[in-house]
Design brief:
By secondary structure, the chain is of the alpha/beta class. It has one domain: Rossmann fold (3-Layer(aba) Sandwich), CATH 3.40.50. Helix content is about 40%, strand content about 25%. The protein has eight helices and seven strands; from the N terminus they run H-H-H-E-H-E-H-E-H-E-H-E-H-E-E. It is globular, with a radius of gyration of 17 Å. The termini are far apart. Bound molecules: S-adenosylmethionine. The site of S-adenosylmethionine has 21 residues, from helix 2, helix 3 and helix 4.
Length: about 240
């Protein structure tokens, strides 16, 4: 089999699995976790085949924050929400980051694949109506990151508050989301959440990066129109606590 055929086959299989396991828009918590349990061991292979860039862009934004803000350094504390198999933390280590990194994910099957990567792991499903454990909600971290977590089938836009709660004043909150047509309703909700916190001076948008080639499309409705789907990555700077 030629290299080209092998790549095309890997893309095809990865698209099928992503569509099956990660785009189930009406999924309940139990179903989402079952999906990630079934997908966990193939996750890294599939996101490589689909040229998934969220961890790279989120780590780039952390490095930019290190360069821009004196409170953030290569030794800062990080909480990696929806950490999955640890791609963000491994990338941070590969660029010389030395600070403690904790990982949070709803799926114990994904967390099982992160042995040796995180200082602490929390098996925690994020829901806007559910409080997080003290360690995650008491504004102790310098950096909160969530690569590839926000989306209609995954983490609700209302969970932005959990990321903001987890960091200190002067800390940064970095995340990505897809901005393709199938995600437009979700992008609008996330935008509304962001605007709400900007308007009450809880955060400022420190950096916004538009990404043309976020990953290969795996949405059957869009694949004929576009090979790559776009996305966006944000860095928010926390100015003050959220008043409930
Ligand atoms: C697309 S993966 C991203 C993983 C990793 N951040 C990366 O970029 O490779 C999404 C992860 O979020 C987790 N997840 C999805 N919805 C969640 C929720 N509501 N609460 C906690 N974890 C969730 C899944 O278990 C999965 O590990």
């Amino acid at each position: 089999m030629s290299d080209q055929t092998q790549v095309a086959d890997a893309e095809k299989v990865a698209r099928q699995r992503v569509h099956k396991y990660a785009h189930t828009f009406s999924a309940e918590q139990k179903e989402k976790l079952e999906n990630y349990k079934a997908w966990a061991t193939d996750y890294n292979t599939d996101v490589t085949a689909l040229q998934y860039t969220a961890p790279k862009h989120c780590v780039d934004l952390i490095l930019n924050a290190v360069n821009k803000h004196s409170e953030i350094s290569m030794n800062s504390s990080v909480v990696d929400f929806c950490c999955g198999t640890g791609l963000v933390a491994n990338r941070l280590r590969s660029v010389g980051f030395t600070g403690p990194i904790d990982g949070v994910d709803g799926s114990d099957a994904m967390l099982d694949l992160t042995a040796g990567v995180y200082r602490n792991t929390f098996c925690q499903f994020l829901d806007p109506g559910k409080n997080l454990p003290e360690m995650l909600s008491s504004s102790q971290y310098d950096v909160a990151v969530m690569a590839g977590g926000f989306g209609p089938a995954q983490v609700d836009a209302g969970c932005l508050k959990h990321l903001i709660h987890s960091i200190k004043i002067g800390g940064v909150c970095i995340f990505s989301t897809r901005t393709n047509r199938c995600n437009s309703e979700f992008s609008k909700k996330l935008d509304d959440e962001l605007t709400k916190y900007v308007h009450c001076d809880v955060i400022v948008i420190d950096e916004l990066r538009n990404i043309d080639k976020f990953e290969l499309s795996s949405f059957p409705e869009e694949m004929k129109e576009t090979r790559y789907i776009p996305g966006v990555a944000y860095c928010l700077l926390k100015l003050k606590p959220i008043k409930e």
